[in-house]
Amino acid sequence: MNADFSLCSDLKQKIQQRSARILTIGLGYVGLPLALTISETGFPVIGLDINKSRVSKINSGQRVISYFSESRISDAIASGGFTATSDPSEISHANIVLICVPSPLSPTREPDLSYVIKAAEYVAAWIKPGQLIVVESTVWPGATAEVVKPILEQRGLLAGKDFFLGFSPEREDPGNETHTTRNIPKIIGADDAHSRDLLDAFYSQIVSQAVPVSSCATAEAVKLVENSFRTVNIALVNELKVALGAMGIDVWEVIEAAATKPFGYMPFYPGPGIGGDCIPVSPVYMSWRARDVGASVPIIDLARFSNDAAPDALAGRIASDLLARSAVPIQGANLLVLGISYKRDIEDTRESPALAILDRLEAMGAICDYHDPYFPVIPKTRDHPSLSGRRSIPLTECALREYDSVIVTTDHSMVDYSLVAQFSHLIFDTRNVFHKRGIVVDGIRLVKI
Ligand SMILES: NC(=O)c1ccc[n+]([C@@H]2O[C@H](COP(=O)([O-])OP(=O)(O)OC[C@H]3O[C@@H](n4cnc5c(N)ncnc54)[C@H](O)[C@@H]3O)[C@@H](O)[C@H]2O)c1
User: Fold this and answer.
1) Centroid of chain to Cα 72
2) Can you give the CATH number for the domain in which 102 is found?
3) Does residue 31's CB lie within 6 angstroms of at least one atom of ligand 1?
């Protein structure tokens, strides 16, 4: 029997018995739900994170992700099947290691794989024959084979022979209660048959459907294609918003009507720009890799530039509409920005367009406050250092009356929009939230932008 075959069949047996020990590296928006889902399936799971404070909060059962049910983490800890650690030597006791660390953009807005490389170095230091290593972080097509694999092989073990390697992109949609880690089909890719077989055996036990593809690079590309598709369509709908607005047509009404077409159309909705860890980032990875291999993706690039420019364009429109409607110049205007998360009902400001709008309005001379139930204080961010430490103001009748205008940048559920509608002088709604909730605001005081 070949070494690789016996190692593979040993691990497969452990997977089938659900006795394989799983270790996730990174306990963020992707790694933690994944670790808990695997633990809830019956596998013993350890979550490794360099953030010691997060590790101790998780081990004491605290709900570190707001949209989790109250007891999801504490139940997992109490079951004895899940624990968190900051000790990388735990990697040596695992049978399957899942890398779920950040893969952001560098300050020059290029792919930054430094966290993935660091995690791979941890694994390389503790790797054991027979382990299955899976990269879940978003990377450019080819990175698992060209960047991660050589690091893992540094100590002489070979991928596909002594250990197994694959890529499986996360499709987590934070806060989405319909599409959860368990019921979202999962793409699995590997460059050899044993690794692919093990990925299939493992993920088929965890998620409703595992979708094998022929290589790591193909699986990596799937993720970038999904997000590039969103990027292009978001840019398109925001462009249409402006053009249709100039024609006196409500883009939201157009989209709702177009969405009744049962084929060939998928609705995308306007907004203040794109944010989060995926949609602004993946197209950059795609574009960078395309250039690297001598190709190009001009449509994706154009969409990126258009999306990147959206917060500035919105700030400009707010300034001109404020002057036209209320005779208030932006210089010295008192404004309230409602919501700083990049999307509804989560505590995440990564790449948030709301912060970019706030920054831009202040650069134009406005005096801005913000309200966000998820952020009593604005956290440190690389792109908006001057905003960190600001405090959310309470949303009261008295406060609302003080502002020349309120700008709805994030449509969090737990905001009293009726109060906002009643007592604001002028509202800029980037999310169509008042219409969606059936809250009537007279047209003079509401601008959908
Ligand atoms: N957030 C999303 O909605 C989403 C969706 C799909 C895919 N992704 C991708 O998943 C990956 C992870 O994203 P996330 O949102 O979970 O990030 P996150 O920032 O929420 O969490 C990452 C965690 O990894 C930890 N970490 C960093 N380096 C580490 C190391 N060397 N060892 C151990 N822990 C380490 C950090 O402390 C942090 O807790 C990224 O590649 C991202 O692009 C994210």
Assistant:
1) 21
2) 3.40.50.720
3) yes
276 and 398 share one domain: yes
Q: Write out the residue range of the structural domain in which residue 249 sits.
A: 229-448
Report CA(105)–ligand 1 centroid distance (Å). Answer: 13
**Domain annotation covers residue 219:** no
Tell me if 29 CB under 6 Å of ligand 1. yes
Distances (CA, A) of 295 to 32, 220, 279, 298: 36, 17, 21, 10
Q: Are residues 313 and 195 in the same domain?
A: no
Residue 30 and residue 176 in one domain: yes
SS3 state at 97:
strand
Ligand 1 atom with the shortest distance to the CA of 32: 16
Cβ proximity of 135 and 99 under 8 Å? yes
Q: How many CA atoms lie within 13 A of 49 on its CB side?
A: 23
Residue 203: closest CA among 171, 157, 161, 158: 171
Q: Which residue among the candidates 8, 278, 368, 398 is catalytic per the annotation?
A: 278
Q: What angle do CA 339, 345, 346 make, to 5 degrees?
A: 90
- Residue 278 falls in the annotated catalytic set: yes
Q: Count of domains in the chain?
A: 2
Average pLDDT, the chain: 95
Tens of pLDDT, residues 237-296: 999 999 999 999 999 999 999 999 999 999 999 999 999 888 999 999 999 999 999 999
Distance, CA 29 to ligand 1 centroid (Å)? 7
Domain check: are 343 and 423 in the same one?
yes
Alpha-carbon gap, residue 51 to 47, rounded angstroms: 11
pLDDT digits (tens, 9 = 90+) for 201-238: 999 999 999 999 999 999 999 999 999 999 999 999 99
Q: Are residues 235 and 209 in the same domain?
A: no
Which of 214, 237, 269 marks a domain boundary? 214
Residue 221 lies in a domain: no
Tell me, what amino acid is at 153? E
- For residues 204 and 266, membership in a common domain is answered with no
Residue with tokens 């004491």: 60
Percent of the chain with pLDDT over 90: 92
Q: Is the CB of 98 under 6 A from ligand 1?
A: no
